[in-house]
């Protein structure tokens, strides 16, 4: 795979992670959002894949807690 193709795949994955996080944040409270967003200090749009994955997992735990699953 060429470097250009790899970059397109990476960018598509990052876009998908950003989109998922933004969608999940709508299910959290404002205070929870603030706490989650501290894990991506430079903002969602510039966060690394690892930061986004961590924030998504954090967000999912809050959502589960909000719905009584935890």
Report on the structure:
The protein is mainly α. 70% of the residues lie in helices and 0% in strands. The chain has helices at residues 3-25, 30-37, 49-66. It is elongated and about 45 Å long. The mean pLDDT is 93.
Give the count of helical stretches: 3
Low-confidence stretches: none
Largest sheet: none
**What are the secondary-structure elements, in order, as H or E?**
HHH
Set out the fold topology.
Elements: H1 3-25, H2 30-37, H3 49-66
Keywords:
70 residues; mainly alpha; 3 helices; 70% helix
At a glance:
The protein is mainly α and 70 residues long. It has 3 helices and no strands.
